[in-house]
Amino acid sequence: MANHSQFGFQDASSPIMEELIEFHDHALMVALTICTLVLYLLTLMLMEKLSSNTVDAQEVELVWTILPAIVLIMLALPSLQILYMMDEIDEPDLTLKAIGHQWYWTYEYTDFKDLSFDSYMLPTVDLPLGHFRLLEVDHRIVIPMESPIRVIVTADDVLHSWTIPSLGVKTDAIPGRLNQTSFITTRPGIFYGQCSEICGANHSFMPIVLESAPLTHFESWSSLLSS
């Protein structure tokens, strides 16, 4: 869960988010190295007298032509690897369908015969003590931890976006189209997200709450809800 003074990402709760944070740190180090080098060269040129060596230097031109290409390769290769990992969906243990409405979510557990519910934001007056305002819902998603989960996302009216930052998941919900994503939660906990696509007047009031629990807890919850 993010806080007001937080500058970085939320704690990663899935392998994909761990890779995204690592790539973010890698890209920042590359950018810091480039900025330091450019600042050093600018300072050097301002402090020292110009000479003919800085006007005509084929070796330097060769270096600053090849070096950016190497830097781009260093950024492109891990980026492409993560993109392919995010698109990979390999034999999920559970499939969840998320349908965006103005302004709530509907969830269907397609592996069960009759397990679906609507998820609305809890009004502030009904909020239990200790829960987060504008982020808590009346019905949470519950999934088994350490299991591959596939999420099929669509919308009933306008564009929405199903997003949980700590899991590294952000998928657009488009009317008439099915998008899919996948994730694995590495630890038990409650993870919060929101609709990340401007979808109307109450766009700010479409929270997403996902609870990752051990398999036995999930089985008890699903049997209780479907009965």
From TrEMBL:
An example Gene Ontology CC term for this record: mitochondrial inner membrane
Keyword Hydrolase set for record: no
Subcellular location: Mitochondrion inner membrane
Membrane topology: Multi-pass membrane protein
Single biological process term from Gene Ontology: ATP synthesis coupled electron transport
One GO MF term attached to the UniProt entry: cytochrome-c oxidase activity
Domain (Cytochrome oxidase subunit II transmembrane region profile) ranges: 1-90
Domain annotation Cytochrome oxidase subunit II copper A binding: ranges: 91-224
Reactions catalysed according to its record: 4 Fe(II)-[cytochrome c] + O2 + 8 H(+)(in) = 4 Fe(III)-[cytochrome c] + 2 H2O + 4 H(+)(out)
Domain of life: Eukaryota
PROSITE patterns: COX2 (PS00078), COX2_CUA (PS50857), COX2_TM (PS50999)
NCBIfam families in alphabetical order: CoxB
Family: Belongs to the cytochrome c oxidase subunit 2 family.
PANTHER family named among the record's database cross-references: CYTOCHROME C OXIDASE SUBUNIT 2, CYTOCHROME C OXIDASE, SUBUNIT II
Name the UniProt record assigns to this protein: Cytochrome c oxidase subunit 2
Organism expressing this protein natively: Laniocera hypopyrra
